[in-house]
């Protein structure tokens, strides 16, 4: 197993442990930290193992951090609608 895959697996374990802990801000601070550490790990995995493995790790990361991705999609959709003059 390559070091990048080990880092990605550790990131996933840490993300799941963080998800079990109670917080007042509904884990948003932890999500920002996980995103900030996950992007370089994703690049490292892609560089070391290729784009297909990187894509699998990206999908795994999106499944862990689904709410930030959902909010990003809603924000992008609203912004696109405003540009088109629908809102």
Question: What can you tell me about this protein's structure?
Answer:
This protein is mainly α and 87 residues long. The chain has one domain (3-84). Helix content is 84%, strand content 0%. The protein has four helices and no strands. It has helices at 3-20, 28-49, 51-64, 66-84. Helix 1 packs antiparallel against helix 2 and helix 1 (3-20) runs parallel beside helix 3. 15% of the residues are buried.
Write the layout of secondary structure elements.
Blueprint: H1 3-20, H2 28-49, H3 51-64, H4 66-84
Transmembrane segments: 6-23, 30-47, 53-76
Protein name: DUF2484 domain-containing protein
InterPro entries: DUF2484
Brief sketch in words of this structure:
It comes from Pseudooceanicola lipolyticus. This protein has 87 residues and is mainly alpha-helical.
How many domains? 1
Mean pLDDT across every amino acid position: 93
The helicity comes to over 70%
Which residue ranges are poorly predicted, with pLDDT under 50 across at least 5 consecutive positions? none
Question: In percent, how much strand structure appears in the residues?
Answer: under 5%
Number of strands: 0
Descriptive tags:
single chain; 87 residues; mainly alpha; flat
């Amino acid at each position: 197993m390559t070091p990048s895959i080990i880092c990605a697996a550790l990131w996933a374990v840490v993300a799941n442990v963080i998800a079990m802990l109670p917080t007042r801000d509904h884990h948003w601070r932890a999500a920002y930290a996980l995103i900030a550490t996950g992007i370089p790990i994703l690049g490292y995995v892609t560089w070391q193992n290729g784009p297909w493995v990187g894509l699998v790790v990206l999908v795994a990361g999106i499944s862990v951090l689904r709410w930030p991705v959902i909010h990003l999609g809603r924000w992008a959709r609203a912004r696109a609608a405003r540009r088109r003059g629908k809102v």
